[in-house]
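Exercise 7. Given the components listed, write out the predicted structure of the assembled complex. Treat all entries as one system.
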Amino acid sequence: MIRFSSFGFRYEPNSPWIVRDLDVEVLDGELLVVIGPTGSGKSTVLRAIDGLIPHFSGGEMLGDVTIAGYSIREATPTDLAGIVGYVGQNPVQSFVTDRVEDEIAYAMENLGITAVTMRRRVEDVLDVLNLHEVRNEQLRSLSGGQQQRVAIAAVLAASPRVLVLDEPTSALDPGSAEEVLSALTRLVHDVGLTVVIAEHRLERVLPFADRVMALTPEGVTLGRPADIMEHSRIAPPIVELGRIAQWKPLPVSVREARRMAGPLVERLAPLRPPPALAVTGSTVATMNVVSLRYGQTPALVDVSWDLAGGTITALMGRNGSGKTSLLNLLSGMRAPSTGTLLVDGHDPKSMKASERIASVGLVPQDPGTLLYCQSVAQECETADREHGLAAGSTWAELEKLDAILEASRHPRDLSEGQRLQLALAVVLAARPDLLLLDEPTRGLDYEAKWSLCCQLTGLRDQGVAILLSTHDVELAASIADHTVVLAGGEIIAGGETRDVVRQTPAFAPQVSKVLSPEPWLSVHEIRAALEASS
Amino acid sequence: MRTKRLVHPGAWWLWAAGLATAGIATSNPLLLLALCTLSVVVATQRGHRHVASTTILGFVKIAVFVVTVRIVIQVLFGQRSPGHTLFTIPSVTLPSWLAGVSLGGPVTTEALLTALQGGLKLAVILLAFGAANALASPRDLLRSMPGVFHEVAVAITVALCFTPELMASVRRLHEARRLRGRPTRGIAGMRGILVPALEDALESATMLAASMGSRGFGRSIGHASTPRLNRGLVITGVLIVIVGGYGVLASDSTVPVPIPVSLLGLVLVSVGVIRSHRRAARTRYRRASFTLAAGLIGLLGWIPAASFWVLSRLGAAGIQWSASPLSPPPISPWGLLAIAVSGAVLFVAPAPVEYGRVPQRGTTLVEAHG
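Answer.
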């Protein structure tokens, strides 16, 4: 269906090749997952399938890619419109119209499909992606999960033979991600659609994959998920668990793993996970029946919660459940409609800017928005000056995070993980007592995520109170002491992470799903417990 | 099956253009106010609930701002004409190198009313097009554009997306600056925000173009290209209409037989549009055809303008009004009747259909913007 022959690509002549000597074939009707660390060329491979590379990017291309017999050397994305559907990382940027139905019909209008057929296909994809309720809504008023589904519906309606998705679940909560992926699997099985997905969150997509293509600096490997996972440096928790327990073949889904889990459960029976960290720090932030309304619509309803120094709290919940609103209140960007909210004993909204940044720091979803200088070094100097710190403080902060950044690079040219580290250093230089992070693992590969975890636990040990809003259950399970779940602006569950995430499968990490009802949450605590016992 | 009747977006724009023209044709503040009210009422009654009210509200705010600015400028810099002095503000004469303009001085009732009158004229135009925006989004209109205007439509679509994207980006960066405790006001604050915001918005525009391309946009142009003849017909036609229209409107023009000239132009445009339409390879989802009702809506919009023009020609009082000599604006029954007739669109256009909506969740809007 799709054949890469000696494909290579780079944006500038003389710069290093992003992809080189790629010789693979994607079969008709398979679901292929492309994995690899940041910068390994996943997006390049995906964009080449749609002809966006080289037609929209420029650059230098070697070899060829053919899709259903069409070579991307000749066929433009427009020519491929009826064959390939491409959904990029940010669905909002791909929307051409205002309304859901119009957006879905857009590609069909361009292809000249008759009005009657169009009507039927629109109804079909509305069904498949469960978008009936919002069919006449404005695209911008939808939640992230709905927008992602509309973007998929919009390319699906043109009935392409290949669907290409770049990180389709990175912005979605576990429930919506599940919905999108099961819709895709259904399409693969029912109509023989060929699907190519690039994704960092392997735990979500691996169970659905027919084959996996791993892009590594050493080369490209293509094979069945279990075989690829055998040697992959990037692996979801379930695979790491399988490696510890020496399961053969390695399981990629919870179902497979549970069948093999018996002996491991026995070995773990006499052991207990480490007890929850006792809260020793003083209370940094308090919320007392806090509510927030935008006009008539409530965003937060009677939220009461305290955040203590030296703890990490995870804030979870569906897209649109009020997580970002809560972060906006704590960071002083908005004032609550009713109730009291204090950080370091003061109302963050009425604090002076210089006092506020010394009390609370927020790293937004896109950390790049915090950065505006021309180089890493300049960014650090500016932060020192703004915060009235001794020269070099921010740079020192960056080194404490073990970040290896070239001082002369432009923040725009850094990887997602590096940009996050720089933004974190800038925020931390003011020494806030409360650190807020909005969806910090979005777009991070496993390695970057692991180093973020180490940095956050390090900060916790220094007594900082950390609140992270996240959809990533694995992150919450591995580092959060407490977890709060929001739904419709209300706190519906809150307490020690081990208790909260095991209450429902939607928020349970893979390890817990495999070993339930045993109380284990993460691979590293199991590894530590086993090593201590032997 | 739904029985929703769609009004062709062009009908609303035609209707609004009529109201705006009526606003230019009269100078009676009462009639101008009536036109403003009509625009707002129709927009809120016949537009989609969630979109229309916010859109028209935005335009009302702009209109109020425009009227206020007009009056403030009149008070500060306006020409000092004789009349009934309302109050006096201290007057300053600028030095001669600043053109020797004099500021302040006595403010007369006449001057204020004239400023209000001018402001209201602008308000009518703003609100009429605000109503058109609320009733039929400009993107809907563009989708219904005939093939000849295809490239123009693309450019406008990208531009339409560019502005909200830029605003969203500015808002996001503004918040980020506040998070860092940075100044967000003043030139320094703006410079730090504007450049990255423009970068973001440009990037989005490129993404949009890529998305349009990979979803087959422009195929129809490539395969069944609009022949040069059609395009030539349309361009020539438009030029002739402009010349003829100038002849009709400007009384002292030198264009011979303006009305036949305009008609000739219109015929050329129509031939070009119809010819290109036959060749278009694109299809339309739920195409709103230009029905009798749509034609009626467009026609009703032009009744006030036409009546005002005829009434003025007949020398009927009440269409034109001047603040000096000072007198209350007359009530013009015929003028008001014409505006009321135009309001009959409320009976012609179907009420907007609201689909089964999920209850709005509080934060979706906010979180959708990150």
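Discussion: Chain B has three domains: 1-137+287-370, 145-217, 226-283. DSSP finds 14 helices and two strands in chain B.
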